[in-house]
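Example 3.2
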Amino acid sequence: MLRTQSRTSHSLIPVVLTGLIGIMGSWAIWQNVRTAELSRIHSEFQARAASQVRLAREHILLYPEILNGLQSLAVTEDPTDSPVFTAFCQDILTRYPSIRALEWIPFITHEERPAFEKRASQHLGVNFEIRQRVADQVIETAPPSDHYLPISFAFPRAINESILGYDLRSGPIYPLLELARTNRSLYASGQIKLFQASGPDDLPGVIFIKPVFSTPNAAGEDRFLGYIECIFHIHATLSEVHRNNPDNALRIHYEDLSTTDPSRRVIYANLAGVEPTLTN
């Protein structure tokens, strides 16, 4: 009887080993399948996230291209009273509604000021004068100076009329204007409160600045003419991108790493298709 039990026990060993091997093999296969599935999910996530970032980058990079086109036109057409320049801006805003304003800021000398203000007044149908900023949301007639940088064109005019004549030498981006002129390069501001903001809760804007110079003469010399500016709300721009290219599987948010105010760190969020309301 004992021998029979011994033989029976020994005969179960292969069965047990086979079962263990089968279990281990199944576990290994499951692990491989799980790892492959996680890798697939991660790769798909990376691809979808990269696609959204690429779309946002491509959209924002359109603004410098727009400025390049306006710069070329400003060399031959004075934007202050040019129907061609106005029509070009109208076409741009029709295609890119997130743009808040397109502006022309000419370089005006003290000697040119009287004639410039008279011509602008006739064209705009209002009493146009060069004004400077003296306090938040307050501007007054600019005193005599050797030169000025007044906004003489702002499109669309209806929501930007309050800034016409505003001498940007008294504004917060003047150092950036000087850099753009000195280096003859495109510059972009951080988020700033716009003078033409509709109220305290209006979201801040970002400004692209492009200096404009005349065509060089025979001696290779040119003349500084002024600046083209493109102003947009970054929140509206990103919202336009993600609404037109929705991906409800992603939770997206953009941060302004340059700000020191934590409450203004997040500039746009899209949480699986839902856009939380942001305030200034």
